């Protein structure tokens, strides 16, 4: 499965780290459910690893990873959990805000959860693990056999989650909804190969990169604004807040793409800046755990202990990654690389 001996550890790390960051760090799952990470790893870890390998083998960069991350979000929530279509998923009314009756979907939940997966479930774990391989961040980790096995493991992971979901819920999406989700995945994958490449702009020598602290601050603020919207919905007034939040998401995404692309064409933009973006998102997720209610009942003391442990682990991981990047002498690369 491995491409070479040095590439196996980061591939394995990404495979198992991704479900921890995606579900346990933000407090969606609690410490007593940690074994669940092994069940989630094929879907989460397999998806992140597959996207990373396809992108790097194609010579593409971060914009491609992010757009493929959107496609991953559609796969997980459209086929795995069917939350994009289930009006009572997890006993919640997720499709009520900004409801789209003709599609049987909710605009708020669709935009929120798909974007959440693109950034936090896919791009963030890849960025953290690649920071530890800063001397060769764009090198593929897997050969053809490894890539094929990863794709099969990912498909199996989605199937397992789908089977668990259907075993505990009688809801089934319509054939039209499944077809629509499949078309969306194909369109996003196509967009990743076209728009993703176009966003990889040429370096502009006269443009200076911002200080790393400013990049971190922007990432923290944007992450807090995005993640915090879920609590606005849960606090009431879902019907009134749905469409304004959808508009807010689109504006926020447009601003972040514009600002980061403007910064990243500087010849001074490098690994430290990319890690700063990831670090802000990582810390946002860690903070979220302390106000998040786990999906299954848990003793409050154990929940707090788990939140503190995962948050501390995230800080240590970020510090180690920062040290690794600082100790690696590389020619600065733009964000698309």
From TrEMBL:
Transmembrane segments: 32-51, 63-85, 105-129, 141-166, 178-199, 211-235, 241-260, 272-291, 303-321
Keywords of this entry: Membrane, Transmembrane, Transmembrane helix
Coiled coil: none
Name under which the protein is recorded: DUF998 domain-containing protein
Species of origin: Stackebrandtia nassauensis (strain DSM 44728 / CIP 108903 / NRRL B-16338 / NBRC 102104 / LLR-40K-21)
């Amino acid at each position: 499965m491995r491409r070479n001996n040095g590439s196996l550890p980061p591939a394995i790390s990404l495979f198992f780290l991704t479900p921890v960051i995606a579900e346990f760090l933000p407090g969606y799952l609690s410490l007593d459910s940690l074994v669940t990470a092994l069940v989630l790893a094929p879907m989460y870890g397999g998806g992140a690893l597959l996207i990373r390998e396809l992108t790097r083998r194609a010579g593409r960069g971060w914009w491609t990873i992010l757009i493929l991350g959107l496609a991953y979000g559609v796969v997980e929530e459209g086929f795995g959990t069917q939350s994009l279509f289930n009006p009572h998923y997890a006993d919640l009314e997720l499709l009520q805000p900004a409801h789209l009756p003709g599609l049987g979907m909710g605009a708020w939940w669709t935009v929120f959860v798909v974007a959440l997966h693109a950034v936090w479930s896919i791009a963030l774990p890849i960025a953290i693990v690649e920071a530890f391989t800063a001397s060769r961040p764009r090198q593929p980790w897997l050969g053809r056999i490894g890539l094929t096995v990863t794709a099969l493991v990912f498909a199996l992971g989605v199937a397992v989650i789908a089977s668990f979901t259907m075993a505990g819920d009688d809801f089934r999406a319509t054939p039209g909804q499944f077809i629509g989700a499949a078309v969306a995945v194909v369109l996003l994958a196509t967009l990743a190969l076209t728009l993703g490449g176009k966003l990889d702009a040429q370096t502009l020598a006269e443009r200076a990169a911002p200080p790393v602290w400013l990049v971190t601050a922007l990432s923290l603020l944007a992450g807090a604004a995005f993640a915090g919207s879920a609590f606005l919905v849960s606090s009431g007034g879902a019907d009134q807040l749905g469409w304004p939040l959808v508009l807010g998401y689109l504006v926020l995404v447009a601003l972040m793409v514009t600002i980061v692309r403007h910064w990243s064409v500087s010849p001074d933009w490098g690994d430290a800046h990319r890690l700063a973006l990831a670090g802000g998102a990582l810390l946002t997720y860690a903070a979220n755990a302390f106000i998040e209610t786990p999906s299954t009942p848990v003793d409050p003391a154990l929940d707090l202990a788990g939140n503190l442990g995962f948050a501390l682990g995230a800080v240590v991981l970020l510090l180690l990654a920062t040290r690794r990047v600082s100790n690696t002498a590389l020619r600065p690369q733009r964000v698309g690389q």
